[in-house]
Amino acid sequence: MKLIGGLATPALPTTPAGVELCAVAVFAGVRAVNLAQFAVASPVALREATSPVLLLVVLGGYLAESAAIGAVVVSARAYRDRRWGWADTATAGAVLLAQPLFTAASDRTGSWTAWGFACTLSSAVGAAVVFTRRRHIAVAVVVLAGCYLVATLPGAAGGSAATALGNAFAYVGFAVLARLLVGYLRRLAGDAERARSEAARAAAEAARLRERERQQRLLHDNISVLRLFAGGGVPEELDGPLRAQAMALANRVRAFLDDPPVEAGEPGPSLVSVLRAAVGDYRDLPVEASVELADGVPLPEPAAGAVRAAVGTLLANVRMHADASNVVVHADADPAEGEWEVTVADDGRGFDPAATPRGFGLRDQVERALAAHGIAVHVHSVPGDGTRVTLRGPLPASWEAVEPEGTP
């Protein structure tokens, strides 16, 4: 809704249907303005007419046709029926040819007694709206201009004849300008409609890909646990923790199937609780969690889920590949830099990041998944000297550091 003169009016939609409604408004508006002008001048026109009765008869017929075509185009919210276009052109031509029946020759140019010229200019506008082919518009304009000249030129003096010829070109001008405007708006609306359709398709495809990645991230850790069980020979001391993790992952799959994706921006848990939950799934690993320095740092959803999944993937990689004797998960927050930091470090085999291609877990579940939430990932590893993965994310502007318990 827009305010015009203090009144609320509906805004036209920027669609092909909106353009057609705008064209109807222009056509009907031009005719209404012309008829309103004549209404103001009608007392003088009736007084100077050679036959006021004929003037009223012709005017009545024209008003009836205008009301009929107005009702049709307003009801349809478009002026695209060529039959009405030809009917309006024929009616306008008849009105112009009837002008000599109730006007003197001296009044047929520049006088509201000969009201046909001004009122039929809207027919030239209407022809540019209703007809899609240029030749049809040209025929309508020739009919209007020809009827006007036939009715006006006979008996016209030199100056009046020149005025009549100039007036005839007004039909051409109105039709050309209306055609340029309406044609441009129709092309513009068509382009906008296609762009909206493309954007909708792109959004649907992006949503499909996000959902697929979400499923892949969920299944990746499950596959790691299943491989351990399927391979057989699981050490007795790992059997209990792995079964507990398998149950936790099964519950996550059930929650995934039952619940819709979490919308961005919803409040989530704290960074500390997310890290402790992730570490809790890997009790079989020698993990030391030192996360108190990040106490009170909030993580909005779905970033919290992405961080938990990423840390879980890093710990799963340690279990599967590192053969580490010590793993440290450290968290801190730096208000001066406006960011929090999480480090997952192990003293295992390590690898050469430049020579070793990233697997799905590190590439998709860690780097790409966290990048989507503005969280940077840095991987440092040396063969034989372990691996350290650092995650950095933004602190909320309103966050204030919380002193860990026991701090003097």
UniProtKB/TrEMBL annotation:
Q: Where are its TM segments located?
A: 53-74, 86-106, 112-131, 138-156, 168-186
Show where the Histidine kinase/HSP90-like ATPase domain sits.
307-395
Q: What are this entry's molecular-function GO terms?
A: kinase activity
Q: Which GO terms describe its biological process?
A: phosphorelay signal transduction system
* Alphabetized UniProt keyword annotations: Coiled coil, Kinase, Membrane, Transferase, Transmembrane, Transmembrane helix, Two-component regulatory system
Per the record, the domain of life is Bacteria
CDD domains attached here? HATPase_UhpB-NarQ-NarX-like (cd16917)
Q: What are the boundaries of the signal sequence?
A: none
| InterPro entries attached to this UniProt entry | HATPase_C_sf (IPR036890), HATPase_dom (IPR003594), Sensor_HK_TwoCompSys (IPR050482)
Q: Which SUPFAM superfamilies match?
A: ATPase domain of HSP90 chaperone/DNA topoisomerase II/histidine kinase
Look up the coiled coil feature and give its residue ranges: 185-212
PANTHER family referenced in this protein's UniProt entry, alphabetically: NITRATE/NITRITE SENSOR PROTEIN NARX-RELATED, SIGNAL TRANSDUCTION HISTIDINE-PROTEIN KINASE_PHOSPHATASE UHPB
Q: What is this protein called?
A: Histidine kinase/HSP90-like ATPase domain-containing protein
Query: What is the species of this protein?
Result: Actinomadura syzygii
